Amino acid sequence: MAGQHLGLAIAFIYVCLGLIGIGMLLLFYMKIRYLRIQRKTKEYLRKHQDYFLFLQAHLGDAEELPLPPGKLGDLERRVIQQRVTEWIEQFKGDLQQKLIALCYNAGFVREDLKLLDSLFYGRRIAAAYRLGGMRAAEAVPRLLEMLKHQKYSPLSIVLARSIAKSAEQEQQLRDMLIHLLRHGKPIHHLAADILMETRLDASRLLLQLLKEDHEDLVKVALAAMRGQEGLEEAPALGRFAFALDRRETTA
Amino acid sequence: MLIYGLFATYYVMTVNLVYFSIMTFSFRQILTIFRRAAFSKYNTLSGSELVPPVSLLVPAFNEEITVIENVKCLLTLNYPAYEVIVINDGSKDNTLGVLRDEFELMPLPDPDIRQTIDCQPITAVYHNPKYPHLYVIDKPNGGKADSLNAGINLSHYPLISSIDADSLLEKDALIRMARMYMENPEETVAIGGDVRIANGCVIENGAVKEVSLPRKIWPMFQATEYLKAFLGGRIGWSSINGLIIVSGAFGLFRKDYVIAVGGYRGGYPGEDMNIIIKLHRYMLENKLKYRIAFCPEAVCWTQAPDTYRILSNQRKRWGRGNLKNMIENYDMAFNPKYKVMGLLTMPYNIIFEALNPYFKITGLLALIGYTLLDMTHWRVLAVFWLINFLSGYVLSIGALLLEELSFKRFNKLSDLCKLLMFSAFKFFGYAQLGGLWRIQGHIQFLRNNNSWGTMTRQSWQDKGEAAAKAAKPAKSA
Amino acid sequence: MMSNLTALHNQTERSGLYAGIEQRVRETAKEVNGVLFIYSEGGPSYVASQVRGILESEPGLQSEVWGGDEPGSVAVLLPGLTLDAVHYQGLRLKQQLQERISDYRPRMALASFSTQKEIMPQLLSQMEEKAKQNYSDDIYIFTKADLLLVKSRILIVEGDPAVREFLQIRLNMQGYETMMADNGITALDLITDWKPDLVLTELNLYGIDGLPYIHQIQQVSGGEMPKIVVLTEQRVEKTISLCFENGVDDYITKPFSPVELDARIRRCIQ
């Protein structure tokens, strides 16, 4: 009897040993790969420092921003794209527009659009995030499609933000809200925050949403206008008008 | 004897299999966690008027050495609207004095305190309009739970967050939690943060600048332990909504529900586990849809005890609090009314956590006795020990894989080797000590069943000493 | 005696170089002209020919290259090129030279002059000097701002390195003297020691931030309070109004328009 138990126990030990071996291999493989990418990224950032300075110095005056001279590898392109996206996130107006144009001309947008067809979910989401960063209006219909089929999760928010950043039509923003809110979660504040990432005229958009029959859309608009004051209170007209006014001056 | 030894062997295998299944839930979640952290820009959210304001509650007992630095760090979080409420729990040192001097605080003539939860009467509330978001409550000593309750009574905002006075929040930690809250505000009643060990890290301007592993062995063991518990355990448990604890060092709560369950329970350690169990119970008994979430990307750094004495005291305290919580809530176990909590979490914690050291030690003793009777049976003993070691090691490696798939906070290859080594060393003594401490904690519990206040004060003292001893060199470095 | 002679010789040779550039400018008859100086101490003497080769490989690019008085010193005239185009050629040159010559670390300065009249020997000499003293690895952009004798000082306080660098480049090119800090504590030290005219600052900082930080600026600067322009993610109404009540001169939220930022800073400083 004991032998039988011992056999089982020994089998258990072998399974553990196998798992430990596989785990260790994976760990070292992943760590080394990650460290290599880190090192390369640093190298490229240093290599292209002159180019980054060039971009920043001439954002205002250059007609069209070129890529750095010479041939670029895949990771190298990704490093540049990331840096440019950082600026796009921080600026608005003409300068932002120029950087967006750079992403188009350099083919960054095209490459990420292609990745939206990838078999791997992880790649699709990463591409969607980057497309939002580059304000790629072209990608919006695809992103809306993705959001429509996405089960509600933190990644729905990632998609919704990308759409809000890139959309050039009010209808697309409305669709985004509908898809986001269809799960029945009371996330009007979050939705309002996402909505306000838009480059479109926010005050006009909010007024339109207020006229909607869809209760959730109205709630989002109210949240966007009134911050944290809560939705239950009767609309305070003074503040309402003030919020609109402020958005106009900053838009 | 053999039969009992075999039973213990199966017990160990089952414990680890259960843990392993919980970890597979963690693995299922980890990529989503990685992506939601990598593909979110927190800077826009951290200035948004749409983020709910939070009251940070910081109980302080005899923290005069560290409290200034910690409050300064808490005042510079990336968060749109929040307040910091420090509760001086009748410190015997000059905690209140140093706070008053540093921030030029004056007593508020007419503080607006609601008595929603019972606590020691508040002596005074201090404030300075130059630091509009800082309040200091002074009150007679009543323990950590009592301090938190006092903080809740003063707090102005709908969310509260409890933070240990000797831990360090990352600048983005709170906004990351808030993002998680905003994704499901109605159902989320509590969110726990990830606690990591700051010993060995370079700290500058109240922030961890360079992550490194501890140099001393006691914190090093704890580092591997924390990784396993937080990444391997809590991510998995939270994904099936069976989380039983949100670390007292850093958690976010909905104030209305904390008040509904009567606030924190004093008198025993383990008030952080207690509040979570009470929340589960309340929500399930009232048939409300809810979740208690874990947010591993929100990180709180803490100074781990680095001497045997302080560490053993901490673990005994945990053992004591744990047992109290289990005894208080044993009715939830195996009760289908309490769903995952009743059918999985509570039984797991009673059978596999609280009773774990007894089974392991008696099992070992039985097999040793059996072997002594007949030395040819040493193989059985070896198998028992190997199963213990290897299945535990698989879990450690799993936790490291989780870290590698998501956060990658340890940047050197040597760190990985060191973690692997210490995860193995743990089974030669440290793990056994852990069991021993837990049993000692249980014995303490049974002996001092009704000594309330002293015990709490004792625990505070330990912590004060730990912070003073461990924190100083690293924090000024 | 000997050294005097060489000095004199150098000077004539140099002014010969500058005169050569001036003359060439008139011949090409382009109103806008790009100029670029490359220098590397004891650098190889064949740099000039390499530069020529690199520039000629670009179709349609008009250029003239002079070897300077020292080996490794090169002057380039790029007729018709505006600053961004000169800068881009500078990038290309640097990259390709570094590919061809191992361990080559050129010091570079470049400019684009919008009228022929501006190109004068003193100016060119000043520019060459800038190139020689440019010990950073970056390419120096020589603008009108370099000729200003009195500059307003701006302290840039920003945690995000990408934004910090951008602000520095932009403000430098507009003729401000800048210093940078990435946290509140360093910023306060710099305000005490360096006495900037204006502090352009984020509100979310390490060390100290928000309103206490604004108060502290007032305290450490004593009587001569710098102007404070806040550039921040923080968009909460109440914080903004508290900032204005406590002596902040302007408040700009991110994402921001750099053009608008320029205007607001100018308004504050005047």
TrEMBL record, chain A:
<feature type="transmembrane region" description="Helical">
    <location>
        <begin position="6"/>
        <end position="30"/>
    </location>
</feature>
<keyword id="KW-1133">Transmembrane helix</keyword>
<keyword id="KW-0812">Transmembrane</keyword>
<protein>
    <recommendedName>
        <fullName>HEAT repeat domain-containing protein</fullName>
    </recommendedName>
</protein>
<keyword id="KW-0472">Membrane</keyword>
<dbReference type="InterPro" id="IPR016024">
    <property type="entry name" value="ARM-type_fold"/>
</dbReference>
UniProtKB/TrEMBL annotation, chain C:
<keyword id="KW-0804">Transcription</keyword>
<dbReference type="GO" id="GO:0006355">
    <property type="term" value="P:regulation of DNA-templated transcription"/>
</dbReference>
<dbReference type="InterPro" id="IPR011006">
    <property type="entry name" value="CheY-like_superfamily"/>
</dbReference>
<keyword id="KW-0597">Phosphoprotein</keyword>
<dbReference type="GO" id="GO:0005829">
    <property type="term" value="C:cytosol"/>
</dbReference>
<keyword id="KW-0238">DNA-binding</keyword>
<keyword id="KW-0902">Two-component regulatory system</keyword>
<dbReference type="GO" id="GO:0000156">
    <property type="term" value="F:phosphorelay response regulator activity"/>
</dbReference>
<protein>
    <submittedName>
        <fullName>Response regulator transcription factor</fullName>
    </submittedName>
</protein>
<dbReference type="GO" id="GO:0032993">
    <property type="term" value="C:protein-DNA complex"/>
</dbReference>
<dbReference type="GO" id="GO:0000976">
    <property type="term" value="F:transcription cis-regulatory region binding"/>
</dbReference>
<dbReference type="Pfam" id="PF00072">
    <property type="entry name" value="Response_reg"/>
</dbReference>
<keyword id="KW-0805">Transcription regulation</keyword>
<dbReference type="InterPro" id="IPR001789">
    <property type="entry name" value="Sig_transdc_resp-reg_receiver"/>
</dbReference>
<dbReference type="InterPro" id="IPR039420">
    <property type="entry name" value="WalR-like"/>
</dbReference>
<feature type="domain" description="Response regulatory">
    <location>
        <begin position="153"/>
        <end position="269"/>
    </location>
</feature>
